[in-house]
Amino acid sequence: xxxxxxxxxxxxxxxxxxxxxxxxxxxxxxxxxxxxxxxxxxxxxxxxxxxxxxxxxxxxxxxxxxxxxxxxxxxxxxxxxxxxxxxxxxxxxxxxxxxxxxxxxxxxxxxxxxxxxxxxxxxxxxxxxxxxxxxxxxxxxxxxxxxxxxxxxxxxxxxxxxxxxxxxxxxxxxxxxxxxxxxxxxxxxxxxxxxxxxxxxxxxxxxxxxxxxxxxxxxxxxxxxxxxxxxxxxxxxxxxxxxxxxxxxxxxxxxxxxxxxxxxxxxxxxxxxxxxxxxxxxxxxxxxxxxxxxxxxxxxxxxxxxxxxxxxxxxxxxxxxxxxxxxxxxxxxxxxxxxxxxxxxxxxxxxxxxxxxxxxxxxxxxxxxxxxxxxxxxxxxxxxxxxx
Length: 388
Prior knowledge:
Layout: E1 5-7, E2 15-17, H1 26-34, H2 42-47, H3 49-72, H4 79-96, H5 112-121, H6 127-131, H7 133-141, H8 149-174, H9 189-201, H10 207-219, H11 227-234, H12 237-247, H13 273-276, H14 280-292, E3 301-302, E4 309-311, E5 314-317, E6 322-323, H15 327-331, H16 377-387
Antiparallel strand pairs: 1-2, 3-6, 4-5
Helix pairs in contact: 3-4, 5-8, 8-10, 9-10, 11-14
């Protein structure tokens, strides 16, 4: 992954902006993370009336009617595109407000251009600027480009798309008081929090550069977290039955009548995410899917500047050395995991069906850990709990 967000406007040269994910040093990461941490805590998510309203609209007004229509017409549902649309819309609505965010699911916006540019930006050749940035820059100066033109073009497209979202959210925030909004879902919760923190932390920057800082930070918050989970569940009828039985114990109940020609979301309520978080088999499914398909790229870091360190049993790694950790290999280490290439949710449960925590195969590293743990891990968990 190219670790920076580039922007050019107003006739200025391209500028590079770090974010919490791409920052390599402890100091830089701490500065960026502090700006966004508060809106991603479990407590903030569970108490957010804006996120609750967004979730209900996207799931009950968008997802359920779409699946119901296919079911009534005896048509298969294309779940890959549907899961992408649902995740992008839900996350972006929390970032920018529902009226400003993407509407791939709720209004049928064309998803193909977005996915094409998303895939091009993270193409295989992006290995070079991520893993060998100095070599990549040097070769570029003498006319050797390791990244294909499509990757550069798609990077520019995605960044323009993100800047447009930020500008629209900025207008929405200036024109609305969240306490007075007719639809609380339209308030740009994350953008508003980040903008306030950016104004304080980077007070010397001009308005355009501040907006680039915000766009860079939010760019990496978009996620496609659900697709593989749905895929694995779809392959296991027994897992579907067990999950359906467990979810049926949750209040409030939700039922869809196959004799009805439409789904009426009025009067329907989603169970709280905290309630779903207590369902052991649902949690086991999410853990096992994240083990099989972690949601991140390799995680480069720089060792401390003033001391050598020990990593993965290797002593004496010098200061200032760039190191990587790759969740795929951590989660498929045969010395730690049994039957590493098989999707087995039950590995996360004890003999009584309770979720294991703290040791052995119950150690998941899907979002990293410690101070560099993914700030959006709780939102990702929230999305998967409610979407499943």
